[in-house]
Amino acid sequence: MTSKNRAALIIIDDSKILLVHRFKNGEEYYVFPGGGIEEGESVEDAATREAKEETGLDVTISKKIWENKNNDRIEYYFLVDKFSGELATEIGGPEQKTQSADNVYRLEWVVIDKIKDLKLLPEEIKLKLLKNYQSGSLV
């Protein structure tokens, strides 16, 4: 069983960040890769599992950098220290099964400076990331 809580990843390669570009019911937005925490699973284990499922990448987490309350759930954001493997050509996991013309998931590397112009959710994390990046640090 999956809880409402979510583990998400901040995966950076040079000056680019890996995001999930969503098209859902006529809306377009971006989110960080991640997903629900399964019963009995640690938050860190959920983050590494979700990275593999959604992106195809094996990740090593550096540390938890943010915790965000979003409605009735808590979202945990982890900075990825290292990653290996080949980025999936399409998103995997349960999201792959639910894709349709009205529900699309695409993995995209985005230049960090450009996220200010995107609808990246949650907005609070986007603003923290931009502020930290502009001051020369991500955390």
UniProtKB/TrEMBL annotation:
Keywords tagged on the record: Hydrolase
GO MF assignments: hydrolase activity
Domain Nudix hydrolase, chain residue ranges per copy: 1-134
Keyword Hydrolase in record: yes
Xref: InterPro entries: Nudix_hydrolase, NUDIX_hydrolase-like_dom_sf, NUDIX_hydrolase_CS, NUDIX_hydrolase_dom
Lineage: superkingdom: Bacteria
Residues of the signal peptide: none
Family: Belongs to the Nudix hydrolase family.
Protein name listed in UniProt: MutT/NUDIX family protein
